[in-house]
Amino acid sequence: MAENSTCCTPEGACHSGGTDVQVGEVTTTYKVTGMTCGHCEGAVSSELGELAGVSSVQAVAATGLVTVTSKAPLDEDAVRAAVDEAGYELVGQAA
After folding, report:
1. 3, 46, 54, 88: which has the highest count of C-beta atoms within 10 A?
2. Rounded CA separation 32/6 (Å)
3. Is there a contact between 67 and 58 (Cβ–Cβ < 8 Å)?
């Protein structure tokens, strides 16, 4: 039988270096208007963190960017509703 000549182990892992990104997770960055401080960041993060499948949220008031990591792509209407519930406005996905 021929030996496996790829860099992958028999378990399917390539390379021994680790990363923090989990296989299958999706990271999406949104533009949100109205955030001005840490309290705003916390309110948006809290509401988005309650959406099903969301594993982390990072909101930055200075840039208006909110980065969400989830198990699958999120429905933009659900993201918009969560941001609205927090008292801010979702512009859409950041370019």
Report:
1. 88
2. 44
3. yes
